[in-house]
Amino acid sequence: MDNDASTSTLNENQENELTDDSQVLPGFCQSLESVLRQGLKVGSLGLIGLLDRDYWSVIDGLSSSSRVTLRPPPSINHAITVVKGCKKTSTSQGRGRLFIRVALTKGILVQALEALLQNQEYVRYWYKDASPLVDYRRKDLVMGILKSLKKRKYNLDVNNCSFLDETWLLPRVEKFEFVPCALLGLTLVSVDGKSIITQVKSGSVAEEHEIEPGDCLDELFGQYIDEKWCLKVGQLKKKYQGKPITACVIKARYKDGRWFPPLYKRYQVLCAEGRCSMTATEFQQRKSESHETDSEKVTSQHTFTIDYLGFHNVGENGSCIYVQDGIDNVLKADNQKRTVKMQLLERDILVMFSDTGEVLGRFSYTETSSCGIKDDQTNIFGFIAGNTTCSFADSFDCHVFSSHDPFIARTIIDGIGKGFDRSIYCV
Which of 153, 214, 226, 328 has its CA 20 to 30 A from that of 392? Predict the structure, then answer.
């Protein structure tokens, strides 16, 4: 999704407070990151190679660079200090992402962006003229972000940051407090700096609390368990002997059974090397079974009650340029609308009539060529599907729907767009 679309989606969202569960938050954060990277000058060559230089370097310099003439408020400096003191992020990318999340939670991201806009000499040192932070012909992009930020509060778990170096995706985190005990029943192996649980002892406290192989031990007694501490967990237990055991565990799977990709990758390596409770073959079989189950598993977040307005055949080409024409033709036909339930599955879009349960259509993402929202009525949207896989289809229909809330329409379009690899969708 482009930056304007993500900002528009956030503006249309009616929630006064956004949390990590919000569907629009990841796209907005990615768009903000994209804006902060546009026009950023390439890192210089240091003694040990190309310096790790990203927008975090720009933000960090607000508190110390001699080129900054208008210093940001103390709250910005405090947030920068918090990020620099966090041991869970080690790259400029991870620290930049953590700063965005901390600043959103503290309600100071607006001040941070304004501080950049007010220090043009400093910004020009870091950015080329094409950057939205420099080129005032593109300032609407930044102003749109500022407008979006001022509308609501953000309640985010800033401690859930151990994988921001790698991805904006957030894992599921569970926190525990166990009674004092001699053994938790966990076997740990460090993989790429993370402490992966490879075995859970039968009958142990860990098994009782449904900690599983593939999960990651993130904290123990408040200490971040990185590669170094993975080898010294025994020292921590000895230090806090007789006291309740506090632990933070990053789950390998979401509640719907999907794997968190960075942990899947690490556990796959361990299984291939024979260092976990499953062989590589068993792991692949388990993953395949999980994928088959996930494809039919639908949560309330992926089910929408909307109105079906009809369809229009757009011919032999399913390009996104025909979405608006398809929508207009359906509206002109003035068909009787019917309430339907739309489910965005792993491989398909399933549409059923609400009153009868009859299936209107099951549209594979490989058959779905494009989708979009009506230009001047943002609660009306449609997608184009072919009579077979897009590469071989010779006839395409545009199916048109309406929702009572433009935010729902946008959410569905985003979901469909993520469903097919081509990601050709109009917003």
Answer: 328
Chain segment 76-100, per-residue pLDDT in tens: 999 999 999 999 999 999 999 999 9
Residue 96 CA to residue 91 CA, distance in Å, equals: 9
For the chain, state the CA radius of gyration: 25
Phi/psi at 97 (5° precision): -65, -40
Nearest alpha-carbon partner for 190 in 240, 158, 233: 233
Give SS3 for 263: helix
pTM across the whole model: 0.65
- Tell me the three state secondary structure of residue 88: coil
Q: Roughly how many angstroms between the first and final C-alpha of the chain, as a whole number?
A: 8
Query: What are the residues whose beta carbons fall under 8 Å from the beta carbon of 396, sequence distance 6 or more?
Result: 313, 314, 315, 316, 317, 318, 322, 369, 384, 385, 386, 387
Q: Quickly count: other Cβ atoms within 10 Å of residue 33's Cβ.
A: 18
Paired sense of beta strands 173-178 and 153-155, if any: unpaired
Name the pLDDT band for 278 (thresholds 50, 70, 90).
low
Distance in angstroms (rounded) separating the CA atoms of residues 154 and 212: 31
Q: Domains in the chain, ordered, with CATH?
A: 17-154 (1.20.58.900), 173-272 (2.30.42.10), 303-422 (2.30.29.30)
Q: Which ranges of 176-322 would DSSP assign to H, the alpha helix?
A: 205-208, 227-230, 233-239, 261-272, 280-296
Q: Report the C-alpha gap between 112 and 76 in whole angstroms.
A: 7
Residues 6+ apart with CB under 8 A from 246: 175, 176, 177, 178, 219, 220, 221, 222
> 18 and 153 in contact (C-beta within 8 Å)?
yes
8 A C-beta contact, residue 401 and residue 381: yes
Q: For residue range 7-18, what is the model confidence (pLDDT) as tens digits?
A: 444 444 455 788
